[in-house]
Amino acid sequence: MTQIEQAKTWLKDADNIIVTAGNGFSIMEGLDMLDDTTFDVEHSKTAKKYHVHTIADALDKKFDSWDEQWKFWSELIQEYSLDYEPSKTMKELRALLDGKDYFIATSSYGHFFEKAGFETKRIFDVFGDWTQMQCSSGLNHGVRSDVEVVKAYQKGQGSVPKCEDCNSPMELHMPLNAHFYPDQDANTRFRWFLTKNQDKKVVVLELGVDPTSPQLLDPMISLTSEHPTWRYIAADLSQDDLPDNLQKTAIGLNTSISNVIKDLKG
Ligand SMILES: [Zn+2]
User: Fold this and answer.
1) Ligand 1 centroid to 142 CA: how many Å?
2) What is the 141 CA–ligand 1 centroid distance (Å)?
3) For the chain, what is the largest distance between any 2 Cα atoms, rounded to a whole number of angstroms?
4) Residue 79 sits in which domain range?
């Protein structure tokens, strides 16, 4: 049996599927936060003023004013999330998981899975979601959507959103500083999904996970080691990258996400 045939059999037999989607997945959906070839052209004023050349650098930067910050954030959110159209592969993944008991854990903050029509209750955005905002005071005053803020800024009518509890400026719901509060409800749902399925036939499908999101890699590898009924299918890793004790229960396909999904679906 070839690797892909084996992977298809595991998926067909699976009671539950966990998808881990990292930076490679974001890139496929159009958001490459480390790309330094287009930033200076698309955001020339910001690049010059703050000496930043990637989205990741720019998100880390404290701008001179909240207004300037929100103006810039709005450009990014509009371009990468509000104008986002799911890729062919994203649609194929949806078809692949349709009717299955699945959970998605992703480091992508671009709101892609929600927008592509996956069930919100089955998604944990580990690094937050920039279409949501949180209080900048450092206190956990909850999150709410920033989509209307973004739209207003894009029309030139924006104003800095304020916290309803303490009137501090709001900031993106992302780990840009020490006081990021992950979505506790989604985190709990994910942990519950892992716990209740520990003796079931679980397949972990790893898509585009790289060292920028170790939270999605190491824990899932160890869970697969601990649970004899679990299987692991990695798009990016090769068989040699996988631990010795997982050689029979894990497959490293070492190819692109789009190839993996196309082959698994076919
Ligand atoms: Zn507040």
Assistant:
1) 8
2) 5
3) 61
4) 39-83+148-173
| Residue at 134 is within a domain | no
- Give residue 153 CA to ligand 1 midpoint distance, Å: 21
- Å from CA of 189 to ligand 1 middle: 26
137 alpha carbon – ligand 1 mean position (Å): 6
Residue 138 Cα to ligand 1 middle (Å): 8
- pLDDT tens digits for 44-82? 999 999 999 999 999 999 999 999 999 999 999 999 999
Distance 66 CA to ligand 1 centre (A): 15
Q: What is the dihedral of CA 15, 118, 98, 216, to 10 degrees?
A: -40
CATH number of 189's domain? 3.40.50.1220
Per-residue model confidence as pLDDT tens digits over 219-258: 999 999 999 999 999 998 999 999 999 999 999 999 999 9
Pairing between β-strand 101-106 and β-strand 16-21 as defined by DSSP bridges: parallel
**10 found inside a domain:** yes
Which residues does residue 125 pair with via DSSP β-bridges, in sequence order? 106
